[in-house]
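Notes from the 1:1 (GR / supervisor)

We went over the backlog. Supervisor wanted to see one worked example end to end before approving the batch request, so GR pasted a single chain during the call. The sequence is below; no edits were made to it. Supervisor asked that the structure be written out right there so they could see what the output format looks like.
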Amino acid sequence: MVRSTQIARVSDGLPLAQSVDDDQTEKDLSEYKQQAKLIFRRLGPSAEQRCSIESGNYTLHYLMHPPPSDPASVVYLTVAERSYPRKLAFSYLDELSKEFERSYGSQVAARNLRPYAFVAFDTFMQRTKRLYADTRTAQTAASSNLDKLNEDLQDVTRIMTKNMEDLLWRGDSLDQMSSMSSSLRDESLKYRKAARQINIDAMIRKWAPVGAVGILFFFIIYIKFF
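Structure output shown during the call:
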């Protein structure tokens, strides 16, 4: 299930709102909340807009909207149990982003904004969190939202996935992750083009002799009878 949520401004990592968690959740997730702050610091203009970062028994899912190049871009991050469906985690974040942008979107880019300026948004987060607490209820409540999400993502497996250890120990930035993802997509496209050309070449080699013999046969028939 969704355990805790944080919202921050992408440009400088300024915390805008977070869920008010009970004492046990605070204790259980203190390490993961620190990891969330690390993620906020690593975001850049070319970072993936949707990403799942696996860490121990939990996964940190984040969504950025508008795109990170926009000065009003906001990142919505939730810590969920690792077994919790990614589709539902991103549907939950998508609902938060729509309501937050509707309520506070015009204020996000303000220079004098104080930390946790929109703490009142916790009311909406808690209400939405309860809807997503049970996966069966969430599937029903968010069915139309999931349809839209699937249209955007085409397939949930396309969401960039990373391991927290890579960020902590290797110092990978989320911009690097985006570059790696783009590079893999480019290489995959090159591979498909190369494979297609190889198939065409193989077909030509296979049928070219047959075609040549056929042309020669018809040429001989033509010479002989015409």
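Supervisor's comment: The chain has two domains: 2-172, 174-226.
Batch request approved.
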